[in-house]
Amino acid sequence: MTRVLVVDDAKFMRVKIREILEEANYIIAGEAADGEQAADLYKKLRPDLVTMDITMPVKNGIKALRDILTFDPKAKVIMCTAMRQQRIVTEAIELGAKDFIVKPFEETKVLEAVSRVMGH
């Protein structure tokens, strides 16, 4: 089973992703509300996949992505973005993010991105 770390500063967004993924039989390994928590939890939990919000307090998603990829260059991270963040998404993909999903989350788009990244 694929274990996922869900990262977003908005609890309702984490809940939405959790519901979509659990319904599709993914296991939520953990949740983080900022990039610093995300990097720490990644190191502890070693999930198969991370969904990472870009705009967060303490440490944003780009910085957390860098930290995670420094720790584990093979990490699979999907960035979660608002519509008008194309430049930042491009930066994240160039850094090593595997895919992105746009808010508000649509179940099919989330599951398609996860399937692409996980090779299902």
Q: Describe the global form.
A: globular
- For the record, the CATH architecture stands as 3-Layer(aba) Sandwich
Judged by helices, strands and strand pairing, the structural class is alpha/beta
Element order: H for helix, E for strand: EHEHEHEHEH
Helix amount, in percent? 40-55%
Q: Mean pLDDT, as a whole number? A: 94
Distance between the termini: 12 Å
Overall number of structural domains: 1
What Rg, in angstroms, do the CA atoms define? 12 Å
Task: Give the beta-strand count.
Answer: 5
* The CATH superfamily title: Response regulator
Runs with pLDDT <50, length 5+? none
Helical segment count:
5
CATH class: Alpha Beta
Query: How large a portion of the residues is in β-strands, by DSSP E?
Result: 15-25%
Predict the CATH topology.
Answer: Rossmann fold
Give structural notes.
The chain starts with a strand and ends with a helix. The protein has helices at residues 11-23, 35-45, 61-71, 86-95, 107-118, and strands at 3-7, 27-32, 49-53, 77-81, 99-102. It is built from 5 helices and 5 strands, in the order βαβαβαβαβα. The longest helix has 13 residues, at 11-23.
Summarize the structure.
The chain is 48% helix and 21% strand. It is an alpha/beta fold.
Question: Which helices and strands occur, and which strands form pairs?
Answer:
Blueprint: E1 3-7, H1 11-23, E2 27-32, H2 35-45, E3 49-53, H3 61-71, E4 77-81, H4 86-95, E5 99-102, H5 107-118
Parallel strand pairs: 1-2, 1-3, 3-4, 4-5
Record keyword descriptors for this entry.
alpha/beta; about 120 residues; 5-stranded parallel sheet; 5 helices; Rossmann fold
